[in-house]
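Cross-posting from the modeling subforum.

Setting up a comparison between two proteins and wanted a second pair of eyes on the formatting. Protein 1 (sequence, then structure tokens):
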Amino acid sequence: MRLPPVQEFIHWLEVGQGARVLRIIVAVLCVLTVTIWYDLYQTRNFSAPEAMEAAQLARNLARGEGFTTQVVRPLTIQLVEDTLGVNARLGRPPRVEPAENTRDGDASLRRPVHPDLFNPPLYPLLLAGWMKLLPFNDVIEGFFWRHQPEVLITAFNQLLFLLLAWLAYRLARRLLNGEAAVVLVAVLCASEFLWRFSASGLPTMLLLVLFVGLLDALTRLEEAQREGHHRLRWFLPRAAAAGLLLGLLALTRYGLLVLLLPVALFYLLFLGRQALPVLAVTLLMTAVVVTPWLVRNHQLSGTLFGVRGYAIYEETLRFPDGRLERSLRPDLETVGTLDLIRKAGEGLRQLTGDDLLRLGGSWVGAFFLVGLLGQYRNPGLSRLRVFLFLCLPTLALTQALGRTHLSVMSPVFTTENLLAVLTPGVCLVGVAFFFWMIERLELPFPEFRHVLSTVLVLGTAVPLFVRVLPPRTVPVVYPPYYPPYLQEAAGYLEPSELLMTDMPWATAWYGDRTSVWTTMDAQQSFYEINDQHKALSALLLTPLTTDAQFRRQILQSRNHEWSRLVLEIMFRTNVPARFPLTHVWRRGTPDHLFLADRPRWLTKVDGKEEAAPLPPAGETNVPPSRLINEPPASPQASATNHPSAGGTDAPSATPDTAATNTSPAKPQPATRGDPER
């Protein structure tokens, strides 16, 4: 007898496929709720330089400008010139047609062309496609809270987060069971560590997705060899897939090429007579994927990995705090073997002391470390545990040697945190060990295992719950980044002009202007770029420079010549003799110092720019309070103190003003139509 439709639906919902569908819907709604709540109350604007640099490169790709960057390092300037000759200098016309590099072919809008030698290509390519699909609007108007393009990039990474959860569920269901797979997904989604990475703008979520795919490929190869039901021709396409994933990992983060070593050992240990041909196919496919990009880098810079290839020399005694990337001609021979050993030792000491405890992003990592000693019912899981164990020292040593100033700025949430890539595998083994312990406990009733699983998930979610509690996180990452100020300051330059700043990644991303990182010295290297490559139109120094410690950094360090320049201008209102940038924009001082070749920020009266105010007659220096807080003197001719006027004395910094609000506490947002300009 056929049941009524309502009873059929109830039966389907209770004992049929409906129960599974209902659980999936509830799980998706829970994840979406957490995502919306986290994005509304806890996400911030980008703070990682790598995130801003990848975003501006993706924008250039979306505009059809290719892998050209607006973040220019003195090191890459010299690398490109040494490889391609003087015709590749920043001041030379681009080797593309004007229609491809300008708007309507206007030469004043032609951007300086500089190849990107910092970012691997995969993540910016995917972001460029995302920017093509959605309406990105990077113009900041009115009240500023969140940067709209960064919200959309965060959404892209959180979609990758959902894809990661689904792939991890499939892998855990195959190696363990459905219950353990659900707990694994819950642990991943409850990890505050992963949520922060998803909102950072970094390619870490893409790396996690690719790594889970690699784990799936390796376990399938091992399972087929163990069961012995397949011939060699079955293994070869799967080996090619593993090589493809390894290549994509390397094109997202160069350092992950070292995973070839644990993959090769895994093959030799567990694939028997199939190991050598499978390894050969994997290596061949990885080479096919990676080689074209490495050849491109070598043709442009003479190096395979561009700037990243010099990471081993950074944060040594000779090149601390980004000194190498800010040098035109770094002397690498001064870095010896003992320096590298010292760097590796310091990095490993930090990893074993702090990062190892954060393995997996939660205390599930402790289950993983203990679970390395356990034996599991599924041999495939036991052998996957061996692969993860091989990855640990390989990635730890690579991370220690590849540590740069980026790890100093943000030790955890950076692309240089290679151990974070192991998070899905660490959580998988940790959850497996958790259920292995439950099976050996005498529980009061069978359903009590669900209570213990809930405790595990809730314990993992404690940092996330604490983070989303009031008060609401302010999304503006200031200091040092205040996007409205950076966009307005950069907006005074034409796209064809060049800006020097201590945060080129931020002015390139928020201001859409080609920006050179401040050179290590404010004399020889500065003038070499200005005179031989392209004239600098402005200099922007931010809290990265102005917040330097007075005795230890400004007075005693060789790395803070620009901080000493700030003090010279602030308190003596003088710039060095023959310095090409003599006009000071008052907005944002003393946190920021913006010098330009002319008073670009002045309003126009009857089609003419207002004259720049100069020091009163008889004064050789303007008091610092006048430069910072007091209104300027009456306008006078600006040409009298400019080097072109024929004067022989050092020019005084001209305290031009374009705003009535000169509070130094924090730059205030301004729109393009601000009459104060």
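Protein 2 (same layout):
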Amino acid sequence: MRLSQRNQEKRLNLRDKHVKNEHLTASEKISEFLGVVRNLFRNPIYVGAIIGRIADVLAFKGFFVFIGKYLEIQFGVPQYKIQKYLAGAGVVGFAVGVMIGSICMKRFHLQGKPNRQLLKMFLCAV
């Protein structure tokens, strides 16, 4: 039984029209990938965001690497006690963050995908 012209127009086309039907060799795929990466690194907004993120990570990691040594020198506390205190503070901070986050999600009826933008704005404000 043939479908009418109208039903054929309504049918969902599951083929992606943007996919090329060419079979590329490995070297062609690599050169295409390198071209895309080159274009990406020419985007000044992307490069600035990456540099900012790298500086943020380095500052954050540097703080945690050197805070123990600083406390040891500044206050004369043994290294094993400092590590115990820092670990306890990290675990407690993580637990409090999870609890506050779950309470906010439950109380304000938030879900992950629909409220992603709201979460991003809140994190930027903090």
